[in-house]
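Predict the assembly for these two chains.
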Amino acid sequence: SDTALCVLVDSREISSGADVISSLKAVHGVKVQVCSLGSSDYVVSNRMAVERRFLSELLSSANRNKVTQRLQHLHSMFERVCVIVEKDRTKPGETSRFLQRTQHYDATLAALLQAGIRLLFSSCQEETALLLKELALVEQRKKAAICVPTEVQGHKQDMLWLSLSSAPTSPCSAPLSFHALPISQHLSCAVSPSDIAAGAQVSLQRAEETYRYLRYGFDVHMLPENLCAKGKSSSTTRS
Amino acid sequence: MAAKGNVPAAPGSVIVPYGHVVGNEKWRGSELARRLQGKTKLIFEDGLGLVDFHLSNRICVLYISEADLVAGDEFKRRLVRFRNASSLGGIVIVEKTPLSEQYFSAVQKLVVLQLGMVLLPVANQEEASQLITQIVREQSKDHTSNPFIRKQCSQLVEASMFRTVQQIPGVGKTKALLLLQQFGSIHQICNASVKELEPVVGQTVAQQIHTFFGS
């Protein structure tokens, strides 16, 4: 194929997955676009998000709620979700940790399977990078690769944020529909859904969803209380 | 446990009663079968072909032991034959041991990325029995109890708008809520002038928001 593979990486992965990122770039020659994805660790195609989780996080039920909420949200935004279960790093001088398999872990795997979430297992960050590349390749073959303007600069990089954080108004719609258009164009009063569809190369239906989403009238009473900041804003919600 | 059966699994060819596991005759007396009994209702059948266990009418397990991995490529042919002949959901359970670890990533690539099947590693038959038990349990549960299954309509537009606005640099939960309440829609926030933004979020953030949208 003539187009370079592209993977979007959440900025938080710079600290927790430095070897994944450098391996993607240096070993696999993948174009890495770091941006504030917020919801997921990686995005490998315009429909697939990848979440990287340490084995220890899934073995222990202490993180249950955190993991569940994140995947639930991802699952509502992306058509396809994949979890890479990565073996925990051993610190220098530490003999490799033996992690006891738990019933919670097996139950989590079973629930993920049932929900149609894909699972991959990795022994280290370098292998995670390889798996990400392979996933992006498979998606490219299925014509779902990410189209990002070759050079995105300055704040325009952040045009990705809106697309990736804007959950669709209906399940399965494309969260990446912004890609080919800068935010300012999306937001100008003159732009119509058909302009978005043409510019971002998405279906008219998806463009209409995006259009409506940006103009949707916010009603604070519809905001789930658990999302609000503690303290003062929860009283706002109730008012 | 290399399967020698030639009959590929056809959907509906094996009826699995609710809460049961139908096992390939060749597993009778194995540690895995012994551990499954008691936790699930295991019955054996002849002629399951390539399949080791049927967990429901739609889902079955193909088991690849450490010995299969070391022995060579026979297991690959078996997986490809299964994939070509069957429309059942195939879960491949593979023994990942210190000895067979080196083969794991190649097997994963074949099973997940090329054949589009599910691959789950276990250390031994005991772990496999626990995993199968949990899968069977999950199958028999009501779908609504699965926390990962997409809940239609549970995603309120307000919730995602709230999240979206928090992605603007300098805007957290409190300011996101103020902005949305004041301006009503994302479109309005983006098109607001610094002067309009200032009373809501203060001078610095107002400038940041304006720069961010670069209009």
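Chain B touches chain A through 62 residues (CB under 8 Å). Confidence is low (pLDDT under 50) at residues 1-6 of chain B.
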